Amino acid sequence: MENPLVPSESTSQSFDVVLIGAGIMSATLGTLIKQLEPGWSIGLFENLDQAGLESSSPWNNAGTGHSALCELNYTAPAADGSVDPAKAIGINEQYQVSRQFFSHMVKNKQVGDPASFINPLPHMSFVIGEDNAKYLKTRYEALKPQTLFNEIEHTEDLDTIKSWTPLVAQGRDGSVPVAASRVISGTDVDFGSLTRQMTQSLSTDGVEVNFGHRVTGLKRDSAGWNLDVRNNVTKAKRSVKAKFVFVGAGGGALGLLQKAGIDEIKGFGGFPVSGQFLRCTDDAIIDQHHAKVYGQASVGAPPMSVPHLDTRFVDGKRSLMFGPYAGFSTNFLKTSSLLDLPLSIRPHNILPMLAVGKDNLDLTTYLIKEVLKSRSKKDDALREYLPEAVGENWELITAGQRVQVIKKDAKKGGVLQFGTEVITSEDGTISGLLGASPGASTATPIMIGLLGRCFPKQFASWESKLKEIIPSYGVKLNENPSLYAEVRAETDKVLKLS
Questions:
Q1: What broad class of enzyme is this (predicted)?
Q2: What is the DSSP letter of 281?
Q3: pTM of the model
Q4: What local confidence, expressed as pLDDT, does residue 246 receive?
Q5: Which of 49, 73, 121, 147 places its Cα 20 to 30 Å from the Cα of 295?
């Protein structure tokens, strides 16, 4: 591949497939297409100078291995206090598909040493207070019988919690009820590293990778799509043709799909949420914590703001961070313009956006409080999970932007959605991904689903190959314990997780 710091020069004028954005979604889709249709020509255009720098970067990504093992927002209690495990099971099923895809790429040398992007790491939920402890016990009892969660452990004993994660327990008042659940077989994924390796492999496999190139326009014609592309350094402009376009541009996807003018984007808007993390700078502290520890979100907080004390492996180095602290900024990408939000308003989405504003005053209040929160208040929040934390050992860093989906709703006028939304034109020639969580960890099943919608004629002939790539393809592992055990053993071996 070209030097990642120098924008490469486009050479081809037309492609079967164009991928906009070099994040984990585009890398996954490109890799799948190359496996299924090796003869198709693919062009990738990325505005930045390297792959995986926006939402796929571990410092910008609120979650780095979402599998619902510890994230409590996937198992919210019902009014009667019961817990339905269905959503958590669904997220875990999706992540199992991604794990199998990772394993396939390792075996086929499309990526390097698994430790460069995935590492074993316990996932743990931790709550404070009697009512919260009761909820966590109910959650544990709902998940424990499920095949995908049968390794979950639970305790309300502070000494046991200390043996699981010392920093969380040290200095804690033993008179206050606490509870924790843990799955020791969780993982941490550096999606930035994974994305760069996949993009490198695509380049080696004949995909034309263009960094430093911004797609500024999309227009349909009888043969597909015309894309206006600008070189960020030379300012040279060119027109590129594509039969199929995937818009995997993160927060930039909404604007590009609006420029494409497809009917399916009408009524959609975006609500940007920014954030910050505290990152530990003391290796002695970092070495004492080895887990992802998730708590409960504040009242009115978006799901991506669930507090977590996270061990992360970034570019091969072990790190520790806490957060996120949510905020508000009108840009849709970390590197884009503050005009993104106002420029995204259209006649077809203004009513849904106003309705969401009216119905989410608690979120607005929460974000205002977060923006005004002082550094000392941020340190206080850290000490709820790390009682003996010293603020000077932690630096405040800016996280990535998340653009939550706003969509029209027949009853409310508009709703704010915290998941992901795949937008596909009626003819299947263009598709894009909006939203955030659970995002990167479920990229593989999301992209397989996209292929089914956009290429229905070819898809049936691809299924045998998909079965080779994903041995459990078409099967729910939670309902097939023996197959799960087989798949899990194989992926653990290949990914060096056991």
A1: oxidoreductase
A2: -
A3: 0.94
A4: 98
A5: 147
Q: List helix spans (H) across 51-190.
A: 86-107, 130-143, 158-164, 166-169
CB atoms within 10 A of CB 157: 12
Per residue in 141-155, pLDDT (tens digit) is 999 999 999 999 999
- CB-count exposure of residue 317 (10 Å: 0-12, 13-18, 19+): exposed
- Separation of alpha carbons 269 and 415, rounded Å: 10
Length of the chain: 498
Measured CA to CA, the distance from residue 226 to residue 238 in angstroms comes to: 10
* Section 190-213 average pLDDT: 97
What are the CA-CA distances from residue 50 to residues 12, 56, 209, 246 (Å)?
20, 11, 10, 18
Say how far apart CA 266 and CA 262 lie, in whole Å: 8
What is d(CA 27, CA 444) in angstroms, rounded to the nearest whole number? 10
Q: Which domains does the chain have, with CATH numbers?
A: 14-449 (3.50.50.60)
Tell me how many helices (H) and strands (E) the chain has: 15, 20
For 84, 134, 168, the CA distances from 124, given in Å and listed in that order, are 19, 16, 11
Q: Check pLDDT > 70 for residue 302.
A: no
CA 75 to chain centre: 18
Return the amino acid letter for 40.
W
- Is the separation of the CB atoms in 268 and 407 below 8 Å? yes
Provide the residue type at 74 as one letter: Y
> What pLDDT is stored for residue 104 in this prediction?
98
CA distance 254 to 377: 34
